[in-house]
């Protein structure tokens, strides 16, 4: 099918989201290169326009002035060089001397009988310079695959940049030859010449076989390492997705370039569809996190029916990261309040007339108590006073349930779009993100609880794409 014909087909799909970032067609995964430059917010992402199941990825590109309404821009980079023919893989952006410097992984898969883990793959760190964030002025390999240290498999990727005291640091996710995760760290004075300084942090066999999509930053004088481990074994209430995403908080010895965690690994999200988080700091000093509203390797447990309609995946809502009483919270950006209209406010015992398909719901409980909340066709959020359970029926397309212990619940903020639900618990203490594909008209909201409090409902306007 011609791309223009595919675009017209996709536009007609009622499951296309109203206020989430998504490309016109095809496949999207990891967010890349997020930056605010000359007053404009840029978000790039892994993108295959012609195939909703993926392939050799480009960097798609969108811009915004307000972090709510986004403009679709032309593809920023494509896999067209000898060092990236099988994908312009994930990376990041940083500003220096009035230019944007991008770093990404150039993926090469050699033809032949290889396993592509220990042999047959090359992954290069590529440096890109752009004067405006729209056009590539030049790009070159700054760390070739052959220059990586020994002891690692062919999987070293996803460079993320950090500047501290006028010096630049790069972290890379890696898989060791012992099948454990690791974060490599390099430093540079000029973004061109890089020196390897060992591992920032190393995992063990209980922490997955590969640590990808690392992000490293300081927030409120604490070091935060974000990573997406592959291969962590599921437990009753943890690590239930095929791959998970989370973070560690700790202290960093910058002379030795070693991080000492002061917390255990914490998952960012307890739902079904959340991976590869990627952050940046805007000119207000906010640490904002993008993430892929999806996960790799979800088959055969669940699927996305939009594949047959020519597209798959979107970004989750961008979230601000803040510490509250020492714990990292995720909050929807304040800017999204501008989408609210048609406000309805009720006491908790007067919610029988609420219904909607694209909306925000804010529930404030006067006291924590069990509840049973029904959303859209057959999605349920159930709290028994100790365990919060998210359940889907047919509209989940194989998504069944996720459960997480929560000591008490005093607030729920829920964003529902045509085919997604994002739940923020206790002002972002916990989040649950999921795709869901209900039939049109299945829009009843039903709440059962003995708690008192209020519920506020807003329809949400469609954003510009």
Number of helices: 1
Overall strand count: 33
Strand order of the largest sheet: 23-33-24-29-30-31
- Overall SS class: mainly beta
**How much of the residues is beta strand, in percent?**
over 45%
What is the distance, rounded to the nearest whole angstrom, between the alpha carbons of the first and last residues? 23 Å
Q: Please tell me what the overall shape is.
A: globular
Biggest sheet overview: 6 strands, antiparallel
Which runs of at least 5 residues are low in confidence (pLDDT < 50)? Answer: none
**Cα radius of gyration in angstroms:** 22 Å
Mean pLDDT: 96
Helix content: under 10%
Keywords for this entry:
about 50% strand; globular; mainly beta; 1 helix; about 475 residues
In short:
By secondary structure, this protein is an all-beta fold.
Walk me through the structure.
This protein is mostly beta strands and 465 residues long. It is 2% helix and 51% strand. The longest helix is centred in the first third of the chain and has 9 residues, at 3-11. It is globular and about 65 Å long. The model has no long low-confidence stretch (mean pLDDT 96).
Write the layout of secondary structure elements.
Elements: H1 3-11, E1 26-37, E2 40-48, E3 58-64, E4 71-77, E5 88-96, E6 99-109, E7 121-130, E8 138-143, E9 152-164, E10 167-176, E11 181-188, E12 195-202, E13 210-219, E14 222-230, E15 246-253, E16 258-261, E17 266-267, E18 275-281, E19 287-292, E20 311-312, E21 319-324, E22 327-332, E23 340-347, E24 359-365, E25 371-375, E26 379-383, E27 387-391, E28 401-405, E29 411-417, E30 420-425, E31 430-435, E32 446-449, E33 453-460
Parallel strand pairs: 1-20
Antiparallel strand pairs: 1-2, 2-3, 3-4, 5-6, 6-7, 7-8, 9-10, 10-11, 11-12, 13-14, 14-15, 15-16, 15-17, 18-19, 19-21, 21-22, 23-33, 24-29, 24-33, 25-26, 25-32, 26-27, 27-28, 29-30, 30-31
């Amino acid at each position: 099918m011609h791309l223009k014909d595919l675009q017209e087909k996709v536009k007609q799909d009622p499951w296309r989201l109203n206020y989430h970032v998504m490309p016109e067609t095809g496949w999207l995964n990891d967010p890349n290169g997020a930056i605010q430059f000359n007053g404009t917010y840029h978000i790039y992402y892994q993108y295959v326009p012609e195939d909703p199941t993926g392939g050799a990825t480009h960097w798609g590109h969108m811009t915004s002035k307000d972090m709510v309404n986004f403009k679709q821009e032309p593809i920023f980079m494509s896999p067209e060089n000898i060092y990236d023919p099988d994908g312009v893989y994930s990376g990041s952006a940083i500003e220096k001397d009035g230019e944007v410097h991008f770093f990404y992984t150039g993926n090469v898969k050699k033809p032949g009988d290889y396993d592509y883990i220990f042999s047959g793959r090359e992954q290069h760190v590529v440096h890109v310079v752009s004067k405006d964030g729209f056009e590539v002025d030049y790009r070159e390999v700054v760390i070739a695959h052959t220059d990586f240290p020994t002891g690692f498999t062919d999987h070293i990727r996803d460079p993320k940049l950090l500047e501290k005291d006028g010096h630049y640091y790069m972290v890379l996710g890696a898989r060791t030859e012992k099948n454990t995760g690791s974060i490599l760290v390099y430093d540079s004075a000029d973004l061109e010449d890089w020196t390897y300084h060992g591992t920032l942090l190393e995992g063990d066999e209980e922490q997955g076989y590969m640590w990808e999509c690392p992000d490293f930053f300081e927030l409120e004088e604490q070091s935060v390492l974000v990573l997406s481990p592959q291969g962590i074994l599921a437990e009753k209430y943890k690590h239930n997705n095929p791959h998970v995403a989370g973070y560690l908080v700790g202290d960093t010895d910058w002379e030795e370039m070693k991080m000492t965690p002061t917390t255990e690994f914490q998952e960012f999200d307890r739902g079904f569809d959340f991976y590869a988080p990627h952050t940046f700091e805007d000119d207000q000093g906010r640490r904002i996190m993008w993430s892929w509203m999806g996960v790799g390797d979800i088959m055969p447990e669940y699927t996305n029916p939009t594949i047959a309609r020519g597209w798959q995946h979107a970004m989750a809502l961008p979230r601000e990261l803040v510490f509250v009483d020492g714990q990292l919270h995720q909050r929807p950006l304040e800017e999204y309040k501008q989408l609210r209209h048609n406000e309805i406010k009720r006491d908790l015992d007067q919610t029988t007339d609420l219904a909607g398909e694209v909306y925000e719901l804010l529930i404030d409980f006067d006291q924590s108590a069990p509840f049973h909340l029904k959303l859209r066709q057959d999605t349920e959020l159930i709290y028994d006073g100790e365990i919060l359970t998210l359940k889907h029926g047919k509209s989940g397309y194989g998504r069944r349930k996720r459960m997480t212990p929560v000591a008490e619940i005093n607030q729920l903020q829920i964003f529902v779009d045509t085919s997604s639900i994002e739940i923020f618990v206790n002002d972002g203490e916990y989040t649950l993100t999921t795709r869901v594909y209900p039939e049109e008209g299945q829009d009843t909201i039903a709440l059962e609880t003995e708690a008192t409090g209020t519920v506020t409902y807003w329809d949400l306007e469609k954003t510009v794409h």
